[in-house]
């Protein structure tokens, strides 16, 4: 791949969302902590369970594991409310909270009345103001996408010290990676939360943009933490694991242009997938029809799918391409087995 990062990993996390019972999400966070994993990230990209509420539960059910949304967005929560929320989560968790934040996506944003104008500028301004508020500054900011006038977190009834909540920008495109590097270089952000359903090789361009951005601000790539969400589908029967992953791969290939391009699917088949899926959201029948055009090779290019050994080997490919902490999202109904496999591989690192 042309990369020179370490294949082994000494940190690992899980990504939780959409479990049938919310109690299961809490149990998996506890299980990950007991197994020695380092983080639990709560999904919030669609109108599913509110990540902040679930994270609050994690703070009381765990003792050591880091807790973060993976990721929330910089539009639907007012910048002051976001700082309030993470100040509170910082207290509840004993300082274990991170803020993962992205620029959301259409058509969902437009369907709820949010116009995602100038997302790069919005991310810069939003993270800057949140960081200053968490540092307990009094903030006046007149930006292009938001403005505040003399506000501060009102912590007179709590132990008021700056809230050390690292910000991680959810980035997929090269320009957002460069902006993230600059935010790290200026001391606003702690790192990037790299996206999933892309091949490891896709990381390399993003990492170079991170380097470009952080060095522009006088830093270096080592300053940029780079956890990455990785979809995994694990089964002793490799064919079954690949089949389990095909539906999600199909949805994203048909609906997310950057994933279509990165997946390795040929243009004719990609067009057929998009046609079969129709509009958003796609039905289960639409996905089943469209998935007939998505080969095993395409699935395994963007999902760590196969036997436990296959999965860990593919996760290490992402680390070799720049990921510093794999955060796994099991597509198969075996979260505990996946956690055990990740914990064993982490111990080997």
Automatic annotation (TrEMBL):
<dbReference type="Pfam" id="PF00296">
    <property type="entry name" value="Bac_luciferase"/>
</dbReference>
<dbReference type="InterPro" id="IPR011251">
    <property type="entry name" value="Luciferase-like_dom"/>
</dbReference>
<protein>
    <recommendedName>
        <fullName>Luciferase-like domain-containing protein</fullName>
    </recommendedName>
</protein>
<dbReference type="InterPro" id="IPR036661">
    <property type="entry name" value="Luciferase-like_sf"/>
</dbReference>
<dbReference type="InterPro" id="IPR050564">
    <property type="entry name" value="F420-G6PD/mer"/>
</dbReference>
<keyword id="KW-0560">Oxidoreductase</keyword>
<dbReference type="GO" id="GO:0016705">
    <property type="term" value="F:oxidoreductase activity, acting on paired donors, with incorporation or reduction of molecular oxygen"/>
</dbReference>
<feature type="domain" description="Luciferase-like">
    <location>
        <begin position="19"/>
        <end position="324"/>
    </location>
</feature>
